[in-house]
Amino acid sequence: MQDFLATPIEFLRGVGPQRGEILRSELGITSFGDLLQHFPFRYVDRSHFHTVSELNEELPYVQLRGVVDQVRTVGAKQGRRLVARFTDATGRMDLVWFKGVRWLQGSLKEGEEYIVFGKVSRFKGLPNMAHPEMEPAVAWDRGLESALQPVYSTTEKASARGLNSRGIARLVRTLLQYPELHVPESLNAELVAWLGGTGRQDAFRHVHAPVDDTHLQAAIRRLKFEELFYIQLQLLIQKSLVQREVPGHVFGKVGDLLNTFYAEHLPFEPTNAQKRVVKEVRRDMGSGTQMNRLVQGDVGSGKTLVALLSMLIALDNGFQAAFMAPTEILAHQHFKTLTAMLSGLPVEVRLLTGSTKTAERKSLLTALRSGHIGILVGTHALLEDVVKFERLGLVVIDEQHRFGVAQRARLWAKNRTPPHVLVMTATPIPRTLAMTLYGDLDVSVIDEMPPGRKPVRTVHRYDASRNAVFAFMEDEIAKGRQVYVVYPLIEESEKSDLKDLTDGYESITRRFPLPKYAVSIVHGRMPQKDKDLEMGRFVRGETNILVATTVIEVGVDVPNASVMVIENAERFGLSQLHQLRGRVGRGADQSYCVLMSGDKLSNDARTRLSTMVGTTDGFRIAEVDLQLRGPGDLMGTQQSGLPQLHLADLVHDVELLQQARAAAGRLLDADPRLSLPENAAIRATLRERMKDKAVWGRIS
Ligand code: ADP
Ligand code: MG
Fold first, then answer.
1. Out of 315-319, 593-597, 692-696, least confident range
2. Considering only the top CATH level, what class is 256-446?
3. Which of 24, 426, 574, 650 has the fewest CB atoms within 10 Å, measured from its CB?
């Protein structure tokens, strides 16, 4: 019966080879099943008609009933368009087409009554509608099956071939009327009942041709649930497979290094959250199966210490550890931090990045193979095949959203018994995304900041108040504090961005002149040694102000810096702003963040800035970011491993996602191999979905 849904789309009545090709290339619909999965993105209440006299531009898509006449072409060449007059009992408007003019001209019948559907705009004070969907009223009256009319996404090219929303609706209706249509159930009876009893075939029917809103909502919920359920089921199977079948090195010992470090080198008392997370890590690494744990913690929550303590456990048990960072600057910073914290202890820490010199690299790789190096810090250069450890026991990935699932998998392949993996996110991830992207990992949350931190006070100022901002900087500097001034540097507008930065630097040095003040400048275009020099002066407190591009986003730690001024703040994304703000507020003093912007702000920019002013909670900020940008943009679609969703969405379906995950968990607890007869449908659906994946072979 699956076969029927796999039928190539051109065999559907009303399609044929030409439209079949359009459906394939424009909408990705290749089979009957694909057409069923091409869900409406909206519904219009077709029982309701607007009148011309009520029209205004605020209205969404509207439907009117009236007579069309005076069909004519106006303009020439590019401006050529077809215009028709549309009249109902209350007034008239123009209908306008810029494309498909010839075809329409032949088919529109003057004096006939039509139903028109579209978005209204105003031209020279009169309402008009461009490219309305049209249907003769007689045909419409005949075709009306339901008041809720589905609206389908389509493309210009498909529309021009009659595959506009209406055209697609017609095809779906045809498909739904085939007596052979059979959509196999994909859930067990218990879940179907829990979802209100709508079977899969009925759900498709109600989504495409709703009889009323109640049935429609139940159907949407059922289909969304199913999407989310299968994603979670796969993740949980993956996770339990790892736990069941992938062996892990057993780190049973609490050894000398950890004890000595704890007793003599620890610069501060770990927070309870840090202690709890280290305990979770230790339990995982002692369990005999491979650890795959994600540590979520806000900027400044102290993830580095958790990484260090975890690595010491590996070292105490005779293994090596790797610490991987997303950028060279961050790798440098981690290397410095770890070296400093471990000084006096017998641990060899080394750094490997893309710019490590050949000779150094050679000796490093030898020392690594011989087991002389305990901790190797680096960028993704660590993933290269030539990098061979003697006994790699733990990999820490300071992730910053940039290492995808695929890269994590590569780490496994290196060893028979794979290393334990600890992934640390640089900024919090919204719950739904964490559950979807990292659903196969165990999650620890560092939900507590080191003591004595005062939340950074954040304000938004327009460029016009620059003098007041300078005066404020002056006051803070007089108290002995240091100030960051950050400029955006976006590749596409690099030249003008660099000019902004150097102009800014000049006006700051004029306002804060030598010898009373000293100002550093750092940007990505400077040679590394100049960067190090300038940065070093600021870190040592020799300069009062650091003017920089976002190179300081990661890695800089100057507790005496208490002011972060972000120029053109409207151009930064939320997570970047949050990261930047995290550079201050690290000492005991009250810190400040000033978001500078121009007067003209988009709605999104306004929301970003007011969110920053309103909260310092990284999880909250991540949620807003998700709302504004959607999951794909937030995580970087390509390598993020986000699943394709037809109906469900990770912004709004939070609760349903949690329910789906819980249901998948319960199912696997009760029937780990899905071998009970009542779960046959689930097993079959899962096999279909996972047939390309190696994992399937291991459960069946
Ligand atoms: P992140 O989670 O952003 O990686 P870091 O590990 O860089 O945070 O820690 C931020 C700052 O807080 C560092 O200066 C670090 O030394 C300090 N820190 C971390 N843990 C504690 C603690 N328990 N008590 C005091 N300071 C801490
Ligand atoms: Mg960090």
1. 692-696
2. alpha beta
3. 24
In the structure, which protein residues have their CB atom closer than 6 angstroms to any atom of ligand 1? 268-271, 274, 297, 299-305, 450, 557, 586
pLDDT at 637: 46
Give distance in angstroms: CA of 608 to centre of ligand 2: 23
pLDDT tens digits along 257-305: 999 999 999 989 999 999 999 999 999 999 988 898 989 988 888 999 9
Q: Which atom of ligand 1 is nearest to the CA of 557?
A: 14
Tell me how far the alpha carbon of residue 325 lies from the centroid of ligand 2, in angstroms: 9
CA distance 591 to 458: 9
Residues 608/570, Cβ–Cβ less than 8 Å: yes
pTM above 0.90, yes or no: no
Walk across the sheet containing 375-378 and list its strands.
Answer: 349-352, 375-378, 320-324, 392-398, 420-424, 292-297, 442-446
- Which amino acid, 455? P
Which residue in the block uniquely carries the two structure tokens 């249907």? 135
- Interval between CA 306 and ligand 1 midpoint (Å): 10
Order of strands, edge to edge, in the sheet holding 545-548? 457-462, 592-597, 561-566, 482-486, 545-548, 519-522
CATH number attached to the domain at 50-139:
2.40.50.140
- d(CA 49, CA 349) in angstroms, rounded, equals 73
- The Å distance, Cα 300 to ligand 2 centre, comes to 7
Phi and psi at residue 344, to the nearest 5°: 95, -10
**CATH of the domain spanning 457-615, picked from 1.10.287.70, 3.90.1150.10, 3.40.50.300, 3.30.70.120:** 3.40.50.300
CA-nearest residue, atom 17 of ligand 1? 302
Contacts of 532 (CB under 8 A, 6+ apart): none
